Amino acid sequence: MAGRGVLVTGGSSGLGEAMVRRFARAGDRVWFTYRSHPDAAARLVAEVAESGGKAEAFELDQGDAESHRRLLERVHGPVDVLVNNAAVGTKTVESCVDGPVELRDEAFLRINSVGPLWMIRALLPAMLERGYGKIVNVCSVGGAVATFPAFEVADGMSKAALAYLTRHLAAQLVHDPVHVFALCPGATHTPMLRASLLDALDERQLAELTGRLPGGRLLDPAELAELAWWLCEEPATLLHGAVLDASRGLGVHPGLVTGPEAGC
């Protein structure tokens, strides 16, 4: 299905930015959201346009009901593909919440799991009416697949909830023309991972961590964006409801970064 309407939340940097570029390159019209850094969002819109693509940026405070309502009023045209990518991590949550741990716990669940639920509730009825829809929930190998105790417990809980949402929704839609997937990346070179982990490491520690990862490297946002795009193509319907470990094996061997060799 060419020329789809694609909504990517959290699309102004990192994995979301790579997804915006990939869907636009395929000829889809892409709307994406950002919470801060409107200049970065504007640059991405301009770069997509220079490449012959179509993209628009909208501010969204994910998990805030009024902000969701404003976004959906401004997105003109059917949303055929929803990529729930916006999220906070163990360190980036601090930019959203200034207060005690209880507020951070609430923010993790509100932003990482309740926000995607609200997006799906708002957009799914029209997908069903049109007879076409793809939903990709971007989780994390941490929480959705494996356990990484160095990160905030509420962070992992929120990603586990998003994986459950994927399976539950897929079961409800098993006879309908809307397909749902969860994509669970491993250690990916994004601003979120840099803030949550990489920036605290010196050069030696970073080299040691990278060497322990599967393949001896961090994942590239572009390769995960390619996978997200493919999930929205017809052959991927066979994976309806799948919670996909996209970590090059870190999900089945988390001890590479949490075991004795990691000093934990």
UniProtKB/TrEMBL annotation:
UniProt-listed InterPro entries: NAD(P)-bd_dom_sf, SDR_DHRS6-like, SDR_fam
GO molecular function annotation: oxidoreductase activity
Pfam families, A to Z: adh_short
Keyword Glycoprotein: no
Keywords noted in UniProt: Oxidoreductase
Family stated for the protein in its record: Belongs to the short-chain dehydrogenases/reductases (SDR) family.
Name of the protein described by the UniProt record: SDR family oxidoreductase
Species whose genome carries this gene: Amycolatopsis iheyensis
